[in-house]
Amino acid sequence: MTRILVVDDEPQILRALRINLRARGYDVQVADSGAAALKAAAGHPPDLVVLDLGLPDLDGTEVIRGLRGWTGVPIIVLSGRAGSEDKVAALDAGADDYVTKPFGVDELLARIRAVTRRLAAASPAVPALRIGRHTVDLADRTVTRDDGVEVKLTPTQWAMLEKLLRNPGKLVSQRQLLHDVWGPEYHHETNYLRQYMAQLRRKLEDDPARPRHLITEPGMGYRYRP
Predict the structure, then answer these.
(1) CA–CA dist 10, 115 (Å, integer)
(2) Cys-Cys crosslink for 64: which of 93, 104, 112, 192, Cβ 3.0 to 4.6 Å?
(3) Could you give the CA distance from residue 107 to residue 202 in angstroms, rounded to a whole number?
(4) pLDDT top residue among 187 and 1
């Protein structure tokens, strides 16, 4: 079931979208502020975000940038701001589409379907991959041990692991990982990479001290060795 996070500070809109989306088979989370949205997305990563720009605590573009620091989830902006500058700012921050209020539910549903189709077509299927005694399914975002136990990963661990697994055998530079997982403002925080790679190895490698699949290339970056 597709999980949609709806972010808006107008209770009527939250209620209407929750009812209409659930009636069409979507799993719906709601948040009424930017901070609540980022917390909800980190705790239960959505498959798509519908986001108002005029939030009480953070501007919607800041929320977009916060999400884009670790996820490529589709974001549809839903806003009363009709000016082209606001649209450009939201799209440049990483939004995938922009719907102006007032809006029709049918139009929003059509935009959701269109964005989902586009991204599905643009994302090549990746088969289940193996790391030691673990099977990683990127489509379902699951890691399962050979004994059937599921291994839980945080959103940041997922983002880092997925970047490596989608480039099997290739060196992914430190700069690229920092940019794609944490955001464009991160350039020198290589300690983040060491910390999260150590966490991934403890969870996935048979011998974390002598990894066979999640390889460090000193001074350059990291590599997934199938």
Answers:
(1) 24
(2) 93
(3) 46
(4) 187
